[in-house]
Design a protein that fits this description.
Layout lengths: L5 H4 L5 H14 L5 E2 L11 H12 L12 H15 L8 E4 L2 H12 L5 E6 L5 H7 L3 E6 L10 H7 L4 E7 L11 H14 L2 E5 L20 H5 L1 E6 L12 E4 L2 H12 L7 H12 L3 H23 L13 E2 L10 E2 L2 E2 L3 H12 L1 E2 L1 E2 L9 E4 L4 H16 L3
Parallel strand pairs: 1-12, 3-4, 3-5, 5-6, 6-7
Antiparallel strand pairs: 2-8, 7-8, 9-14, 10-11, 13-14
Helix pairs in contact: 3-11, 4-11, 5-6, 5-10, 12-14, 13-14
The structure holds pyridoxal-5'-phosphate (PLP).
Pyridoxal-5'-phosphate binds next to α5.
Length: about 400
């Protein structure tokens, strides 16, 4: 009898968290590593949000809450959807979980069965395929093209759909590419989903981090038919620099939300009471800190993308949202350093970490080996130095 389940044996740890751990361990040895690895804002959580948590502690709001979140937070989420996307939800259509990742996990457990197919456009967020597999379903990876802005075309989607298709995962704006779908593009996708009778899981966690006036649209808001088939996954982590607070949420059909709540009730129970109170303040309190953070991200985006595109051989799509650059470094594959050949994104990322002391995440982890992911949720100073180091290191390749 083997100790581990097949499920556990086949599961790798999240590669983004693994890179960060390696970079942190080098830093603890006194090595100055510039990290483009983290998928989290470098800003502090805004003061008004922290104050709401302090108040919750002082008032003794430190006990179990309703499994799927307190009504006050559900109401704040309902307000948020109405305000930002014109979507009306009831409390029974909302669940609060321990992070957006947890919301997605519960959802996968609630709707996927053995053999169901789930379409995932690549490049994708690293956790989608494993979470789909853990639920017994089959991830159907559909490659998107840089020339299409890394977006799935209607033809791509039609090609991937089969009678077994249970859902499509849409992540707009996207981690890792920063691309985002326009209303027109979403209308086409919605049509196909309605015709094909499958669900759309819309991960909108980067909704608020968009640039150059890009207008975010939730696919659920297009019409009633698609709203009935859409489950929105969202969270406070990225917008409000609250990655450590672990609050995510989902909105969708009551039957699905109720099943997610049952799963949550038998696993984690409620998300942290204090963090829930803080999230109420985040969602319906003043939003000016968000505007400031997005402005800073926009400046960094312009700088990092310009510089990456100036590196000989490198090309980088200009993201319209999120805080990641996803440059194509493949012209350097096949080159060598000290007699050792670099053949793929993992070996190039290792080379950057060992030689340049710069942490990036290999594109292969997102299903796109020609690329590396650089998070620019880090200071301008570090971005500048990190890019200097990358440029210097690349010159050493022959
Ligand atoms: N969805 C996407 C696309 C993400 O990039 C992340 C975090 O990296 C999440 C969901 C989950 O965020 P959290 O669990 O921190 O709320």
């Amino acid at each position: 009898m083997s100790i581990l389940s097949n499920r556990a044996k086949n599961l790798k740890p999240s590669p983004t968290l693994a890179i960060n751990a390696k970079a942190k361990s080098m830093q603890s040895q006194g090595i100055k590593v510039i990290s483009f690895g983290a998928g989290e804002p470098d800003f502090d959580t805004p003061q008004n949000i922290k104050q709401a948590a302090v108040k919750a502690i002082e008032e003794g709001f430190t006990k179990y809450t309703a499994v799927g979140g307190i009504d006050e937070l559900k109401d704040a989420i309902i307000k948020k959807f109405q305000r930002d996307s014109g979507l009306s939800y009831k409390r029974s259509e909302i669940i609060v979980s321990c992070g957006g990742k947890h919301s997605f996990y519960n959802l996968a457990q609630a709707i996927f069965d053995q053999g169901d197919e789930v379409i995932i456009p690549a490049p994708y967020w690293v956790s989608y395929p494993p979470m789909v597999s853990l639920a017994g379903a089959v991830p159907i990876l559909s490659e998107t093209k840089e020339k299409h802005g890394f977006k799935m075309t209607p033809e791509d989607l039609k090609r991937a759909v089969t009678p077994k298709t249970k859902a499509l995962i849409l992540n707009s704006p996207s981690n890792p590419t920063g691309s985002a779908y326009t209303k027109k593009e979403l209308e086409k996708i919605a049509e196909i989903a309605i015709l094909g009778n499958f669900f759309v899981i819309s991960d909108e966690i980067y909704e608020k981090i968009v640039y150059d006036g890009f207008e975010f649209v939730s696919i659920a808001s297009l019409n009633d038919e698609i709203r009935k088939r859409t489950i929105i996954v969202h969270g406070v982590a990225k917008t409000y620099a609250m990655t450590g607070w672990r609050i995510g949420y989902a909105a969708g059909p009551e039957e699905i939300i109720s099943a997610m709540s049952n799963i949550q009730s038998q696993s984690t129970s409620n998300p942290t009471s204090i963090a829930q109170k803080a999230s109420v303040e985040a969602l319906i309190g003043p939003q000016n800190e968000v505007v400031k953070m997005v402005k800073a991200f926009a400046q960094r985006r312009n700088y990092i993308v310009d510089r990456l595109n100036k590196i000989p051989g490198v090309s980088c799509y200009k993201p319209v949202g999120a805080f990641y650059a996803f440059p194509n470094f493949s012209p350097y594959y096949g080159k060598s350093y000290q007699g050792k050949k670099i053949s793929n994104s993992t070996e190039l990322a290792d080379f950057f970490l060992d030689v340049a002391r710069v942490a990036v995440v290999p594109g292969v982890e997102f299903g796109a080996d020609p690329f590396e992911r650089l998070s620019y949720a880090t200071s301008m100073e570090d971005i500048r130095e990190g890019l200097d180091r990358i440029e210097e290191a690349l010159k050493k390749l022959t």
